[in-house]
Design goal:
heterodimer; A: 185 residues; mainly alpha; 7 helices; 71% helix; globular; B: 390 residues; alpha+beta; 8-stranded antiparallel beta sheet; extended
Protein backbone atom coordinates (compact mmCIF):
# COMPACT_ATOMS: atom_id res chain seq x y z
CA UNK A 1 0.00 0.00 0.00
CA UNK A 2 1.42 3.33 -1.02
CA UNK A 3 0.32 6.42 0.82
CA UNK A 4 -0.29 9.38 -1.40
CA UNK A 5 -0.60 12.75 0.24
CA UNK A 6 -1.70 15.50 -2.01
CA UNK A 7 -4.34 17.15 -4.06
CA UNK A 8 -6.52 14.25 -5.10
CA UNK A 9 -9.92 13.83 -3.59
CA UNK A 10 -10.50 16.96 -1.57
CA UNK A 11 -13.03 18.25 -3.99
CA UNK A 12 -14.09 21.27 -1.98
CA UNK A 13 -10.49 22.44 -1.98
CA UNK A 14 -9.27 24.91 -4.63
CA UNK A 15 -6.13 22.84 -5.13
CA UNK A 16 -8.31 19.96 -6.32
CA UNK A 17 -9.93 22.01 -9.02
CA UNK A 18 -6.36 22.94 -9.97
CA UNK A 19 -5.53 19.21 -10.22
CA UNK A 20 -8.69 18.54 -12.24
CA UNK A 21 -7.91 21.38 -14.64
CA UNK A 22 -4.37 20.17 -15.13
CA UNK A 23 -5.62 16.62 -15.68
CA UNK A 24 -8.22 17.62 -18.25
CA UNK A 25 -5.85 19.89 -20.19
CA UNK A 26 -2.87 17.55 -20.25
CA UNK A 27 -4.24 14.01 -20.38
CA UNK A 28 -4.90 13.66 -24.11
CA UNK A 29 -1.59 15.18 -25.33
CA UNK A 30 0.35 13.15 -22.75
CA UNK A 31 -1.47 10.04 -23.95
CA UNK A 32 -0.29 10.82 -27.51
CA UNK A 33 3.31 11.18 -26.35
CA UNK A 34 3.41 8.17 -24.03
CA UNK A 35 1.64 5.89 -26.49
CA UNK A 36 4.35 6.68 -29.06
CA UNK A 37 6.88 5.34 -26.60
CA UNK A 38 4.97 2.27 -25.38
CA UNK A 39 2.62 1.36 -28.23
CA UNK A 40 0.13 -0.17 -25.80
CA UNK A 41 -3.10 1.38 -24.67
CA UNK A 42 -3.32 -0.27 -21.26
CA UNK A 43 0.29 0.49 -20.38
CA UNK A 44 -0.13 4.08 -21.53
CA UNK A 45 -3.18 4.52 -19.30
CA UNK A 46 -1.35 2.96 -16.34
CA UNK A 47 1.66 5.21 -16.88
CA UNK A 48 -0.49 8.34 -16.97
CA UNK A 49 -2.24 7.31 -13.76
CA UNK A 50 1.10 6.85 -11.99
CA UNK A 51 2.37 10.20 -13.25
CA UNK A 52 -0.74 12.14 -12.21
CA UNK A 53 -0.71 10.53 -8.78
CA UNK A 54 2.89 11.62 -8.45
CA UNK A 55 1.98 15.12 -9.60
CA UNK A 56 -0.59 15.43 -6.81
CA UNK A 57 2.25 15.11 -4.29
CA UNK A 58 4.58 17.57 -5.94
CA UNK A 59 4.89 21.28 -5.29
CA UNK A 60 5.27 21.81 -9.03
CA UNK A 61 1.47 21.66 -9.42
CA UNK A 62 1.29 25.23 -8.15
CA UNK A 63 3.71 26.49 -10.79
CA UNK A 64 2.49 28.12 -14.04
CA UNK A 65 0.75 25.84 -16.57
CA UNK A 66 3.65 25.53 -19.00
CA UNK A 67 5.98 24.40 -16.22
CA UNK A 68 3.49 21.80 -14.99
CA UNK A 69 3.05 20.51 -18.56
CA UNK A 70 6.81 20.24 -19.05
CA UNK A 71 7.13 18.38 -15.72
CA UNK A 72 4.36 15.97 -16.78
CA UNK A 73 5.95 15.27 -20.14
CA UNK A 74 9.30 14.61 -18.49
CA UNK A 75 7.68 12.32 -15.91
CA UNK A 76 5.82 10.39 -18.64
CA UNK A 77 8.98 9.90 -20.69
CA UNK A 78 10.93 8.69 -17.65
CA UNK A 79 8.16 6.35 -16.51
CA UNK A 80 7.83 5.12 -20.10
CA UNK A 81 11.55 4.38 -20.38
CA UNK A 82 11.38 2.42 -17.12
CA UNK A 83 8.51 0.37 -18.46
CA UNK A 84 10.36 -0.29 -21.71
CA UNK A 85 13.37 -1.53 -19.76
CA UNK A 86 11.33 -3.92 -17.64
CA UNK A 87 9.37 -5.04 -20.69
CA UNK A 88 12.62 -5.80 -22.49
CA UNK A 89 13.69 -7.99 -19.57
CA UNK A 90 10.31 -9.73 -19.56
CA UNK A 91 10.49 -10.34 -23.29
CA UNK A 92 13.94 -11.86 -23.04
CA UNK A 93 12.54 -14.13 -20.39
CA UNK A 94 9.56 -15.07 -22.53
CA UNK A 95 11.79 -15.63 -25.53
CA UNK A 96 13.89 -18.06 -23.55
CA UNK A 97 10.72 -19.93 -22.74
CA UNK A 98 10.11 -20.24 -26.45
CA UNK A 99 6.90 -18.25 -26.52
CA UNK A 100 8.03 -15.35 -28.63
CA UNK A 101 4.57 -14.78 -30.02
CA UNK A 102 3.38 -13.38 -26.73
CA UNK A 103 6.18 -10.86 -26.46
CA UNK A 104 4.76 -8.53 -29.08
CA UNK A 105 1.90 -6.85 -27.36
CA UNK A 106 -0.30 -4.14 -28.68
CA UNK A 107 -3.33 -2.42 -27.28
CA UNK A 108 -5.07 -1.66 -30.51
CA UNK A 109 -6.38 -4.58 -32.48
CA UNK A 110 -7.71 -3.11 -35.67
CA UNK A 111 -8.49 -6.26 -37.57
CA UNK A 112 -5.98 -9.01 -38.19
CA UNK A 113 -4.44 -7.54 -41.34
CA UNK A 114 -3.89 -4.00 -40.06
CA UNK A 115 -2.91 -5.36 -36.69
CA UNK A 116 -0.08 -7.49 -38.06
CA UNK A 117 1.17 -4.82 -40.44
CA UNK A 118 1.17 -2.03 -37.88
CA UNK A 119 2.81 -4.17 -35.22
CA UNK A 120 5.65 -5.22 -37.48
CA UNK A 121 6.26 -1.73 -38.80
CA UNK A 122 6.06 -0.18 -35.36
CA UNK A 123 8.48 -2.79 -34.06
CA UNK A 124 10.99 -1.84 -36.77
CA UNK A 125 10.69 1.86 -35.88
CA UNK A 126 11.05 1.11 -32.16
CA UNK A 127 14.14 -1.05 -32.73
CA UNK A 128 15.74 1.88 -34.59
CA UNK A 129 14.76 4.31 -31.82
CA UNK A 130 16.33 2.06 -29.17
CA UNK A 131 19.72 2.84 -30.70
CA UNK A 132 19.39 6.55 -29.84
CA UNK A 133 20.61 8.16 -26.62
CA UNK A 134 17.58 8.86 -24.41
CA UNK A 135 17.64 12.62 -24.90
CA UNK A 136 17.74 12.41 -28.70
CA UNK A 137 15.01 9.78 -28.65
CA UNK A 138 12.83 11.97 -26.42
CA UNK A 139 13.51 14.93 -28.68
CA UNK A 140 12.32 13.01 -31.78
CA UNK A 141 9.20 11.72 -30.04
CA UNK A 142 8.30 15.15 -28.68
CA UNK A 143 8.84 16.88 -32.02
CA UNK A 144 6.74 14.33 -33.89
CA UNK A 145 4.06 14.56 -31.25
CA UNK A 146 3.81 18.22 -32.28
CA UNK A 147 5.64 20.11 -29.51
CA UNK A 148 7.49 23.37 -30.21
CA UNK A 149 11.21 23.78 -29.66
CA UNK A 150 10.50 25.86 -26.54
CA UNK A 151 8.29 23.09 -25.10
CA UNK A 152 10.89 20.45 -25.95
CA UNK A 153 13.65 22.51 -24.30
CA UNK A 154 11.52 22.90 -21.14
CA UNK A 155 10.73 19.17 -21.05
CA UNK A 156 14.31 18.02 -21.49
CA UNK A 157 15.72 20.86 -19.37
CA UNK A 158 18.15 21.91 -22.09
CA UNK A 159 18.86 25.29 -23.72
CA UNK A 160 16.53 26.29 -26.53
CA UNK A 161 19.48 26.33 -28.92
CA UNK A 162 20.26 22.65 -28.25
CA UNK A 163 16.93 21.36 -29.58
CA UNK A 164 17.88 21.70 -33.26
CA UNK A 165 21.15 19.84 -32.64
CA UNK A 166 19.47 17.03 -30.69
CA UNK A 167 16.86 16.70 -33.40
CA UNK A 168 19.33 16.72 -36.31
CA UNK A 169 21.59 14.14 -34.60
CA UNK A 170 18.64 12.02 -33.53
CA UNK A 171 17.20 11.93 -37.04
CA UNK A 172 20.59 11.06 -38.52
CA UNK A 173 21.14 8.16 -36.11
CA UNK A 174 17.56 7.00 -36.57
CA UNK A 175 17.93 7.04 -40.34
CA UNK A 176 21.20 5.10 -40.25
CA UNK A 177 19.80 2.43 -37.92
CA UNK A 178 16.44 2.19 -39.65
CA UNK A 179 18.06 1.71 -43.04
CA UNK A 180 20.59 -0.76 -41.65
CA UNK A 181 17.63 -2.99 -40.78
CA UNK A 182 16.78 -3.37 -44.43
CA UNK A 183 17.39 -6.80 -45.79
CA UNK A 184 17.14 -8.29 -42.32
CA UNK A 185 13.94 -9.62 -40.89
CA UNK B 1 31.53 34.76 -41.51
CA UNK B 2 31.54 31.14 -40.28
CA UNK B 3 28.66 28.92 -41.38
CA UNK B 4 25.74 28.06 -39.01
CA UNK B 5 25.85 24.61 -37.40
CA UNK B 6 23.40 21.77 -38.19
CA UNK B 7 21.25 22.57 -35.15
CA UNK B 8 20.70 26.14 -36.32
CA UNK B 9 19.82 24.95 -39.83
CA UNK B 10 17.50 22.31 -38.44
CA UNK B 11 15.67 24.93 -36.35
CA UNK B 12 15.47 27.19 -39.40
CA UNK B 13 13.82 24.35 -41.38
CA UNK B 14 11.11 24.13 -38.72
CA UNK B 15 10.74 27.90 -38.60
CA UNK B 16 11.74 27.71 -34.95
CA UNK B 17 14.13 29.97 -33.01
CA UNK B 18 17.65 28.64 -32.60
CA UNK B 19 17.79 30.58 -29.34
CA UNK B 20 21.08 32.34 -29.86
CA UNK B 21 22.95 29.07 -29.62
CA UNK B 22 26.66 29.48 -28.90
CA UNK B 23 28.23 29.27 -32.32
CA UNK B 24 24.89 30.17 -33.83
CA UNK B 25 26.10 33.72 -33.37
CA UNK B 26 24.29 36.23 -35.52
CA UNK B 27 22.12 33.50 -37.07
CA UNK B 28 19.60 33.79 -34.25
CA UNK B 29 18.36 36.57 -36.54
CA UNK B 30 16.49 34.72 -39.30
CA UNK B 31 17.04 37.48 -41.86
CA UNK B 32 20.81 37.13 -41.55
CA UNK B 33 20.54 33.34 -41.87
CA UNK B 34 18.31 33.63 -44.96
CA UNK B 35 20.86 35.92 -46.56
CA UNK B 36 23.75 33.59 -45.76
CA UNK B 37 21.93 30.53 -47.10
CA UNK B 38 21.13 32.28 -50.37
CA UNK B 39 24.84 32.71 -51.04
CA UNK B 40 26.40 29.58 -49.48
CA UNK B 41 26.43 26.38 -51.56
CA UNK B 42 27.79 24.30 -48.72
CA UNK B 43 24.97 25.35 -46.36
CA UNK B 44 22.38 24.70 -49.06
CA UNK B 45 23.74 21.18 -49.47
CA UNK B 46 23.69 20.57 -45.72
CA UNK B 47 20.12 21.87 -45.52
CA UNK B 48 19.09 19.52 -48.34
CA UNK B 49 20.72 16.61 -46.51
CA UNK B 50 18.97 17.51 -43.25
CA UNK B 51 15.69 17.69 -45.18
CA UNK B 52 16.19 14.20 -46.62
CA UNK B 53 17.03 12.75 -43.22
CA UNK B 54 14.05 14.43 -41.54
CA UNK B 55 11.88 13.31 -44.46
CA UNK B 56 12.72 9.68 -43.79
CA UNK B 57 12.18 9.90 -40.05
CA UNK B 58 8.82 11.67 -40.19
CA UNK B 59 6.62 8.96 -41.79
CA UNK B 60 8.35 6.23 -39.75
CA UNK B 61 7.69 8.04 -36.48
CA UNK B 62 4.13 8.82 -37.58
CA UNK B 63 3.52 5.06 -37.38
CA UNK B 64 3.98 5.20 -33.60
CA UNK B 65 1.14 7.66 -33.11
CA UNK B 66 -2.05 6.28 -31.56
CA UNK B 67 -4.85 5.92 -34.08
CA UNK B 68 -6.79 8.45 -32.07
CA UNK B 69 -6.46 10.40 -28.83
CA UNK B 70 -8.81 9.87 -25.89
CA UNK B 71 -12.06 11.82 -26.20
CA UNK B 72 -13.15 14.32 -23.55
CA UNK B 73 -15.46 11.64 -22.14
CA UNK B 74 -12.62 9.12 -21.89
CA UNK B 75 -10.37 11.69 -20.21
CA UNK B 76 -13.12 12.36 -17.71
CA UNK B 77 -13.51 8.62 -17.08
CA UNK B 78 -9.75 8.35 -16.48
CA UNK B 79 -9.89 11.27 -14.05
CA UNK B 80 -12.78 9.68 -12.16
CA UNK B 81 -10.90 6.36 -11.99
CA UNK B 82 -8.06 8.20 -10.33
CA UNK B 83 -10.13 10.29 -7.94
CA UNK B 84 -13.07 7.97 -7.22
CA UNK B 85 -11.46 5.61 -4.67
CA UNK B 86 -10.79 8.62 -2.49
CA UNK B 87 -14.18 10.25 -2.96
CA UNK B 88 -16.15 7.13 -2.14
CA UNK B 89 -14.30 6.27 1.06
CA UNK B 90 -15.32 8.51 3.97
CA UNK B 91 -12.50 7.04 6.09
CA UNK B 92 -9.96 8.93 4.12
CA UNK B 93 -9.25 12.60 4.47
CA UNK B 94 -8.80 14.76 1.45
CA UNK B 95 -5.21 15.44 2.29
CA UNK B 96 -3.99 11.87 2.63
CA UNK B 97 -5.24 9.07 0.46
CA UNK B 98 -4.12 5.54 -0.14
CA UNK B 99 -4.12 3.49 -3.25
CA UNK B 100 -5.37 0.02 -2.49
CA UNK B 101 -5.65 -3.31 -4.21
CA UNK B 102 -9.12 -2.27 -5.39
CA UNK B 103 -7.59 0.39 -7.51
CA UNK B 104 -4.98 -1.96 -8.90
CA UNK B 105 -7.61 -4.50 -9.91
CA UNK B 106 -9.64 -1.72 -11.45
CA UNK B 107 -6.73 -0.85 -13.66
CA UNK B 108 -6.13 -4.47 -14.45
CA UNK B 109 -9.71 -4.90 -15.61
CA UNK B 110 -9.27 -1.98 -17.97
CA UNK B 111 -6.22 -3.68 -19.44
CA UNK B 112 -8.04 -6.98 -19.72
CA UNK B 113 -10.77 -5.39 -21.71
CA UNK B 114 -8.35 -4.47 -24.46
CA UNK B 115 -6.41 -7.67 -24.50
CA UNK B 116 -9.63 -9.63 -25.03
CA UNK B 117 -10.44 -7.74 -28.20
CA UNK B 118 -9.55 -10.59 -30.55
CA UNK B 119 -12.11 -12.72 -28.73
CA UNK B 120 -14.58 -9.92 -29.15
CA UNK B 121 -13.81 -10.20 -32.84
CA UNK B 122 -14.95 -13.82 -32.79
CA UNK B 123 -18.10 -12.76 -30.99
CA UNK B 124 -18.63 -10.08 -33.63
CA UNK B 125 -18.55 -12.79 -36.25
CA UNK B 126 -21.11 -14.76 -34.29
CA UNK B 127 -23.36 -11.74 -33.98
CA UNK B 128 -22.69 -10.64 -37.52
CA UNK B 129 -23.75 -13.92 -39.00
CA UNK B 130 -26.61 -14.42 -36.59
CA UNK B 131 -28.24 -11.12 -37.39
CA UNK B 132 -28.27 -11.92 -41.05
CA UNK B 133 -31.46 -13.79 -40.58
CA UNK B 134 -34.50 -11.55 -40.81
CA UNK B 135 -38.04 -12.62 -39.94
CA UNK B 136 -39.69 -11.18 -43.02
CA UNK B 137 -41.43 -13.67 -45.27
CA UNK B 138 -39.99 -16.81 -43.73
CA UNK B 139 -42.15 -19.91 -43.56
CA UNK B 140 -42.44 -21.62 -40.20
CA UNK B 141 -41.11 -24.87 -41.63
CA UNK B 142 -37.90 -23.26 -42.78
CA UNK B 143 -37.30 -21.86 -39.31
CA UNK B 144 -36.00 -25.17 -37.99
CA UNK B 145 -32.93 -24.95 -40.11
CA UNK B 146 -32.13 -21.54 -41.45
CA UNK B 147 -29.14 -21.37 -43.70
CA UNK B 148 -26.77 -18.61 -44.57
CA UNK B 149 -24.18 -18.39 -47.34
CA UNK B 150 -22.20 -15.22 -47.95
CA UNK B 151 -22.33 -13.84 -51.48
CA UNK B 152 -21.59 -10.21 -50.75
CA UNK B 153 -20.15 -8.01 -48.01
CA UNK B 154 -21.47 -5.01 -46.11
CA UNK B 155 -19.40 -2.80 -43.83
CA UNK B 156 -20.93 -2.23 -40.41
CA UNK B 157 -19.28 0.57 -38.44
CA UNK B 158 -18.92 -0.38 -34.77
CA UNK B 159 -17.56 1.51 -31.76
CA UNK B 160 -16.06 0.60 -28.37
CA UNK B 161 -19.54 0.29 -26.90
CA UNK B 162 -20.42 -2.46 -29.39
CA UNK B 163 -17.19 -4.30 -28.67
CA UNK B 164 -18.16 -4.30 -24.98
CA UNK B 165 -21.69 -5.47 -25.82
CA UNK B 166 -20.28 -8.34 -27.86
CA UNK B 167 -17.98 -9.33 -25.02
CA UNK B 168 -21.06 -9.61 -22.83
CA UNK B 169 -22.58 -11.91 -25.40
CA UNK B 170 -19.83 -14.42 -24.67
CA UNK B 171 -21.17 -14.74 -21.14
CA UNK B 172 -24.43 -16.23 -22.45
CA UNK B 173 -22.93 -19.38 -23.89
CA UNK B 174 -19.82 -21.26 -24.85
CA UNK B 175 -17.68 -21.11 -27.95
CA UNK B 176 -16.18 -24.32 -29.24
CA UNK B 177 -14.30 -25.19 -32.37
CA UNK B 178 -11.03 -26.39 -33.76
CA UNK B 179 -8.80 -23.48 -32.76
CA UNK B 180 -5.74 -25.06 -34.34
CA UNK B 181 -7.34 -24.73 -37.75
CA UNK B 182 -6.89 -20.97 -37.55
CA UNK B 183 -3.13 -21.41 -37.48
CA UNK B 184 -1.94 -20.81 -41.02
CA UNK B 185 0.58 -23.27 -42.38
CA UNK B 186 3.41 -22.12 -44.66
CA UNK B 187 3.68 -23.79 -48.07
CA UNK B 188 6.21 -23.40 -50.86
CA UNK B 189 4.19 -21.77 -53.63
CA UNK B 190 0.72 -20.61 -54.75
CA UNK B 191 0.43 -23.91 -56.62
CA UNK B 192 1.11 -25.92 -53.47
CA UNK B 193 -1.44 -23.75 -51.66
CA UNK B 194 -4.02 -24.47 -54.35
CA UNK B 195 -3.51 -28.22 -53.95
CA UNK B 196 -3.99 -27.97 -50.20
CA UNK B 197 -6.91 -25.53 -50.21
CA UNK B 198 -8.69 -27.23 -53.08
CA UNK B 199 -9.24 -24.15 -55.23
CA UNK B 200 -7.31 -22.20 -57.88
CA UNK B 201 -5.23 -19.48 -56.18
CA UNK B 202 -5.18 -16.08 -57.85
CA UNK B 203 -1.98 -14.02 -58.07
CA UNK B 204 -1.45 -10.30 -58.80
CA UNK B 205 0.36 -8.67 -61.70
CA UNK B 206 3.84 -8.37 -60.15
CA UNK B 207 4.58 -5.18 -62.11
CA UNK B 208 1.90 -3.40 -60.07
CA UNK B 209 3.35 -4.22 -56.62
CA UNK B 210 4.64 -1.20 -54.67
CA UNK B 211 8.33 -0.34 -55.18
CA UNK B 212 10.79 -2.12 -52.89
CA UNK B 213 8.50 -5.09 -52.30
CA UNK B 214 9.93 -8.53 -53.04
CA UNK B 215 8.33 -10.42 -55.90
CA UNK B 216 8.40 -13.83 -54.23
CA UNK B 217 5.54 -14.22 -51.77
CA UNK B 218 5.46 -16.10 -48.47
CA UNK B 219 2.49 -18.40 -48.96
CA UNK B 220 0.25 -19.68 -46.15
CA UNK B 221 -2.85 -21.88 -46.05
CA UNK B 222 -5.36 -22.32 -43.25
CA UNK B 223 -7.70 -25.28 -43.03
CA UNK B 224 -11.49 -24.91 -43.05
CA UNK B 225 -13.02 -25.17 -39.60
CA UNK B 226 -16.23 -24.88 -37.68
CA UNK B 227 -16.99 -22.49 -34.84
CA UNK B 228 -19.96 -23.29 -32.65
CA UNK B 229 -21.59 -20.88 -30.22
CA UNK B 230 -23.96 -22.73 -27.85
CA UNK B 231 -26.33 -20.80 -25.59
CA UNK B 232 -26.06 -21.93 -21.97
CA UNK B 233 -28.89 -20.93 -19.63
CA UNK B 234 -27.02 -21.66 -16.36
CA UNK B 235 -23.96 -19.74 -17.40
CA UNK B 236 -26.11 -16.80 -18.51
CA UNK B 237 -28.09 -16.93 -15.26
CA UNK B 238 -24.94 -16.81 -13.15
CA UNK B 239 -23.68 -13.91 -15.14
CA UNK B 240 -26.89 -11.89 -14.80
CA UNK B 241 -26.96 -12.63 -11.06
CA UNK B 242 -23.36 -11.47 -10.61
CA UNK B 243 -24.40 -8.18 -12.15
CA UNK B 244 -27.65 -7.92 -10.21
CA UNK B 245 -29.66 -7.84 -13.43
CA UNK B 246 -32.83 -9.57 -14.57
CA UNK B 247 -32.17 -12.49 -16.93
CA UNK B 248 -33.14 -11.71 -20.51
CA UNK B 249 -32.10 -14.96 -22.21
CA UNK B 250 -35.26 -17.00 -22.93
CA UNK B 251 -35.09 -20.56 -21.43
CA UNK B 252 -35.65 -22.29 -24.74
CA UNK B 253 -32.36 -20.84 -26.05
CA UNK B 254 -30.55 -23.28 -23.75
CA UNK B 255 -28.57 -25.76 -25.85
CA UNK B 256 -29.26 -24.09 -29.19
CA UNK B 257 -26.22 -23.42 -31.35
CA UNK B 258 -25.10 -21.16 -34.09
CA UNK B 259 -22.64 -23.09 -36.26
CA UNK B 260 -20.38 -21.07 -38.53
CA UNK B 261 -18.28 -22.71 -41.21
CA UNK B 262 -15.03 -20.77 -41.48
CA UNK B 263 -13.60 -21.42 -44.94
CA UNK B 264 -10.13 -22.46 -46.00
CA UNK B 265 -7.98 -19.42 -46.82
CA UNK B 266 -4.74 -18.71 -48.71
CA UNK B 267 -2.55 -15.66 -48.10
CA UNK B 268 0.28 -14.44 -50.30
CA UNK B 269 2.54 -12.05 -48.43
CA UNK B 270 4.95 -9.95 -50.48
CA UNK B 271 7.57 -8.72 -47.97
CA UNK B 272 8.98 -5.19 -47.90
CA UNK B 273 12.77 -4.77 -47.95
CA UNK B 274 12.86 -4.57 -44.15
CA UNK B 275 11.11 -7.93 -43.81
CA UNK B 276 7.75 -6.53 -42.72
CA UNK B 277 4.73 -7.55 -44.80
CA UNK B 278 4.64 -5.08 -47.68
CA UNK B 279 1.49 -6.28 -49.37
CA UNK B 280 -0.82 -9.17 -48.55
CA UNK B 281 -3.24 -10.86 -50.94
CA UNK B 282 -5.86 -13.10 -49.32
CA UNK B 283 -8.43 -15.44 -50.79
CA UNK B 284 -11.04 -17.55 -49.00
CA UNK B 285 -14.14 -19.50 -49.80
CA UNK B 286 -17.45 -18.13 -48.58
CA UNK B 287 -18.67 -18.17 -44.99
CA UNK B 288 -21.71 -20.31 -44.16
CA UNK B 289 -23.84 -20.62 -41.05
CA UNK B 290 -26.73 -22.69 -39.72
CA UNK B 291 -28.83 -22.62 -36.54
CA UNK B 292 -29.17 -25.89 -34.62
CA UNK B 293 -31.54 -26.74 -31.80
CA UNK B 294 -34.94 -25.30 -30.93
CA UNK B 295 -34.25 -21.71 -31.85
CA UNK B 296 -34.25 -20.25 -35.33
CA UNK B 297 -31.77 -17.82 -36.77
CA UNK B 298 -34.30 -14.99 -36.74
CA UNK B 299 -35.04 -15.59 -33.08
CA UNK B 300 -31.33 -15.44 -32.38
CA UNK B 301 -31.11 -12.30 -34.45
CA UNK B 302 -34.01 -10.65 -32.65
CA UNK B 303 -32.48 -11.49 -29.29
CA UNK B 304 -29.02 -10.25 -30.24
CA UNK B 305 -30.32 -7.03 -31.73
CA UNK B 306 -32.03 -6.40 -28.38
CA UNK B 307 -28.79 -6.79 -26.42
CA UNK B 308 -28.69 -3.83 -24.02
CA UNK B 309 -25.37 -2.16 -24.78
CA UNK B 310 -25.46 -2.54 -28.54
CA UNK B 311 -25.32 0.96 -30.02
CA UNK B 312 -28.37 2.33 -31.85
CA UNK B 313 -26.25 3.07 -34.91
CA UNK B 314 -25.00 -0.51 -35.18
CA UNK B 315 -28.47 -1.88 -34.56
CA UNK B 316 -29.97 0.14 -37.41
CA UNK B 317 -27.09 -0.66 -39.77
CA UNK B 318 -27.61 -4.37 -39.16
CA UNK B 319 -31.38 -4.08 -39.51
CA UNK B 320 -31.05 -2.25 -42.80
CA UNK B 321 -29.15 -5.09 -44.51
CA UNK B 322 -31.77 -6.17 -47.01
CA UNK B 323 -30.37 -9.36 -48.50
CA UNK B 324 -29.71 -11.00 -45.16
CA UNK B 325 -29.37 -14.54 -46.46
CA UNK B 326 -26.25 -13.72 -48.42
CA UNK B 327 -24.71 -10.54 -46.98
CA UNK B 328 -21.74 -10.92 -44.63
CA UNK B 329 -21.40 -7.91 -42.30
CA UNK B 330 -17.82 -6.72 -41.90
CA UNK B 331 -17.44 -5.09 -38.47
CA UNK B 332 -15.13 -2.06 -38.77
CA UNK B 333 -14.10 0.12 -35.79
CA UNK B 334 -15.41 3.46 -37.06
CA UNK B 335 -13.05 5.63 -35.05
CA UNK B 336 -9.96 3.76 -36.21
CA UNK B 337 -10.57 2.83 -39.81
CA UNK B 338 -12.03 4.92 -42.64
CA UNK B 339 -13.84 3.11 -45.45
CA UNK B 340 -15.64 3.76 -48.72
CA UNK B 341 -17.34 1.56 -51.28
CA UNK B 342 -16.04 1.28 -54.81
CA UNK B 343 -16.02 -1.16 -57.72
CA UNK B 344 -13.22 -3.55 -58.51
CA UNK B 345 -13.39 -5.40 -61.80
CA UNK B 346 -17.05 -4.41 -62.09
CA UNK B 347 -18.12 -5.75 -58.67
CA UNK B 348 -18.81 -3.97 -55.39
CA UNK B 349 -15.79 -3.65 -53.07
CA UNK B 350 -14.74 -1.74 -49.95
CA UNK B 351 -11.59 0.32 -49.52
CA UNK B 352 -10.31 0.59 -45.92
CA UNK B 353 -7.69 2.98 -44.61
CA UNK B 354 -6.14 3.30 -41.15
CA UNK B 355 -5.66 6.62 -39.37
CA UNK B 356 -2.09 7.19 -40.60
CA UNK B 357 -3.07 6.77 -44.26
CA UNK B 358 -0.03 4.51 -44.68
CA UNK B 359 -1.97 1.26 -44.55
CA UNK B 360 -4.72 0.59 -47.06
CA UNK B 361 -6.78 -2.42 -48.01
CA UNK B 362 -9.55 -3.57 -50.32
CA UNK B 363 -12.04 -6.39 -49.66
CA UNK B 364 -14.70 -7.82 -51.90
CA UNK B 365 -16.57 -11.01 -52.70
CA UNK B 366 -17.06 -12.53 -56.12
CA UNK B 367 -17.94 -15.92 -57.59
CA UNK B 368 -17.93 -17.76 -54.29
CA UNK B 369 -14.70 -16.26 -52.93
CA UNK B 370 -13.87 -13.47 -50.51
CA UNK B 371 -10.77 -11.51 -51.54
CA UNK B 372 -8.59 -9.02 -49.69
CA UNK B 373 -5.56 -6.96 -50.71
CA UNK B 374 -3.81 -4.71 -48.22
CA UNK B 375 -0.54 -3.30 -47.03
CA UNK B 376 1.80 -0.35 -46.87
CA UNK B 377 0.76 1.05 -50.22
CA UNK B 378 -1.25 3.92 -51.64
CA UNK B 379 -4.93 3.21 -52.03
CA UNK B 380 -4.57 3.46 -55.83
CA UNK B 381 -1.85 0.79 -55.79
CA UNK B 382 -4.03 -1.47 -53.66
CA UNK B 383 -6.93 -0.97 -56.05
CA UNK B 384 -4.78 -1.71 -59.14
CA UNK B 385 -3.28 -4.83 -57.55
CA UNK B 386 -6.78 -5.96 -56.57
CA UNK B 387 -8.05 -5.52 -60.12
CA UNK B 388 -5.09 -7.47 -61.51
CA UNK B 389 -5.73 -10.73 -59.60
CA UNK B 390 -6.03 -13.64 -62.04
Amino acid sequence: MVAVAGHIGSHADPVTSRFDDVFRTNYAPLYGLTYRLLGDRGETEDTLQEVFIKLAREAVIDRPDHEVSAWLRRACLNAGYNRLRSRLRAEQHVEEAGRLAFAERTGDEVGPLFGVLRREQQAAVRRALQALPERQRACLLLRHAGYSYAEIAATLEVALGSVGVLLARGEQTFRDTYQAQEGTS
Amino acid sequence: MTCPDDGTLRAWMDDEPSGGRPGGGPYADTAILDEHLAGCDSCQERTARLHRTAGLAAPALALLAPLRLPTATEVEAARVRLVEPQLTDPQRSGATVARTATDTSRRRSVRLRWSTRPLAGAAALVLGVAVLASPAGRSAAADFLAQFRSEQLAVVAIDDQDVAALEELRQLGTVSGDQAAFEAEPVSSPRAAARQAGFAVVTPDLALLPPGVRRTPRVQVSRPSEVRFTFDRDRAQRWYQSRGEQPVLPDRFDGSSLVISVPSAVTLEYPAADGTPGLIVGQARTVQAVAEGGVTLEEMRAFLLDLPGLSESTRSQLESIGDWRSTLPLPVPADEIAWESTTIDGGEAFLLSDGSGLLNAAVWQRDGFIYGVGGQADIEVVRDVAASLR
